[in-house]
Specification:
Blueprint (H helix, E strand, L loop, with lengths): L2 H11 L4 E5 L6 H8 L7 E8 L2 E8 L6 H8 L4 E3 L2 H8 L18 E4 L7 E5 L5 E6 H8 L2 E3 L5
Parallel strand pairs: 3-5, 5-8
Antiparallel strand pairs: 1-7, 2-3, 2-4, 6-7
């Protein structure tokens, strides 16, 4: 089952109310915010990073940037890097920009969410495709995604 359908089914099974928007493919967080009619900060940008020898999923407000020093400190490691496009494809079957902000059972990664996500009532994200977005209440997202919430945004 493709990620989009898997995610939609997961939300429905958990009785989560969400709004779905089908749109032209978007390639930046700004384009996505525009087609959704949402502020950039509401966007949940999902990024896969390699921490030592393990890939992990990080979600941050689309209006923020990751501070890799904070991630290194949190995990007590010296090296981190973003997954390459080919690694993303191999690990998820998805292209950059389409990764939804969900670890298990949707994507097989430990999930870490920056506290910037918790400051909005809603979270909007690409749902496994560049042309499908879901918007839901942040409280519902946090309840079913079960992330570890940490501080890793640049200020």
């Amino acid at each position: 089952m493709e990620i989009y359908q898997k995610l939609k089914k997961f939300l429905k099974e958990n009785k989560i109310e969400f709004r779905e928007i089908n749109h032209q493919p978007t390639f930046t967080s700004e384009e996505s915010a525009n087609v959704r009619g949402e502020d950039l900060s509401v966007g949940g940008k999902a990024l896969i990073m390699k921490i030592d020898d393990e890939f992990k999923l990080f979600v941050i407000s689309a209006a923020k940037k990751i501070d890799s020093k904070k991630i290194k400190q949190h995990f007590n490691v010296k090296k981190t890097r973003f997954a390459s496009e080919s690694e993303l494809k191999e690990l998820t079957g998805l292209v950059p920009g389409s990764i939804p902000p969900f670890g298990r059972p949707i994507l097989d990664f430990d999930l870490y969410v920056d506290k910037s996500i918790t400051q909005n009532e809603r979270i909007a994200f690409n749902a496994g495709s560049l042309s499908n977005s879901f918007i839901l209440e942040t409280a519902d997202y946090l309840r079913i995604a079960k992330p570890e919430v940490i501080d890793f945004a640049e200020y």
